[in-house]
Design a protein that fits this description.
single chain, 267 residues, alpha/beta, 2-enoyl-CoA Hydratase, Chain A, domain 1, Lyase 2-enoyl-coa Hydratase, Chain  A, domain 2, 6-stranded mixed sheet, 3-stranded mixed sheet, 12 helices
Length: 267
């Protein structure tokens, strides 16, 4: 499909989704951009050749989150009665955390600038985060009299722990990339000019792994957050039995014995 709010491309097993509304700091509360993000995520899941999804923004911002002008004028998803507003959140912005969380392959947020409010939460929806030195992060909802309405209360504690999540949420403080690195919110901080290079380096390490096992490994990591050890072991045994019967598993063993680089085919 033709995208208008984002840029989307797939190359060498890596998909890149770029928020592309720099004039509004890549705000993500319009129905158009929500639908396009959802569509891109679905395309990644449907394409078994894709092994990594990178989410980034067109400079200078990663995303400012919800459009505060629409909030003030009560336009778009921010209009209506309380009951209608609740449905608007469910039917609009909350589609993003569900879509990104359900991406079957590893996801990396390349945070090129400020990631504020829902923009901060979008980065947290990804499995990993690499930050430009220009990046900033703010769970700023309380500063405008709101609460995290897009899943931030789920993702933030899992990224930095409950105490840090409480501090960021209750104070609304915007932190720089160094502080984000110090508290474990991001995996790495890099010079701005090297952001995409370093992100692609990480993506390339991931794409060197077999596609089917990679997707199953991601499912297991997240299943382990919400289940018991016994249930996770049962699921792990089932996935492992599938992996043992893949061509890629046998290719990995052959390459190891023959001291060469494996050539995985996703089978």
């Amino acid at each position: 499909m033709e995208f208008k709010e984002i840029l989307f491309k797939i190359n060498d097993h890596i998909a890149v989704l770029t928020l592309n509304r720099p004039e509004i700091r890549n705000a993500i509360s319009s129905r158009g951009i929500i639908e396009e993000i959802e569509t891109a995520c679905r395309m990644v899941n449907d394409d078994m050749t894709v092994k990594v999804l990178i989410i980034t923004g067109t400079d200078p911002s990663f995303s400012s989150g919800g459009n505060v002008k629409d909030m003030a004028s009560k336009e778009g998803m921010f209009g209506g009665t309380p009951a209608q507003l609740m449905e608007n959140y469910r039917k609009n912005i909350q589609r993003i955390p569900l879509a990104v969380f359900d991406v079957a392959v590893p996801t990396i947020a390349a945070v090129n600038g400020p990631a504020i409010g829902a923009g901060c939460d979008l980065s947290l929806m990804c499995d990993m985060r690499i930050a430009s030195r220009k990046a900033k992060f703010g769970e700023t909802f309380l500063s405008v009299g709101l609460i995290p309405g897009d899943g931030g209360a789920y993702f933030l504690p899992r990224a930095v722990g409950m105490a840090r999540a409480c501090e960021m949420t209750f104070t609304g403080e915007v932190i720089d990339a160094q502080k984000a690195l110090d508290i474990g919110l991001v995996n790495e901080m890099v010079p701005h000019a090297q952001l995409m290079e370093k992100t692609f380096d990480l993506a390339a390490k991931i794409t060197s792994k077999p596609a089917e096992a990679l997707r199953m490994a991601k499912r297991l990591l997240y299943a382990g957050q919400d289940t018991t050890l016994r249930k996770l072991l049962e699921q792990s045994a089932a996935y492992q039995s599938l992996c043992h019967h893949t061509e890629d598993h046998m290719e990995a063993l052959s390459a190891m014995f023959e001291k060469r680089k494996p050539e995985f085919k996703g089978r």
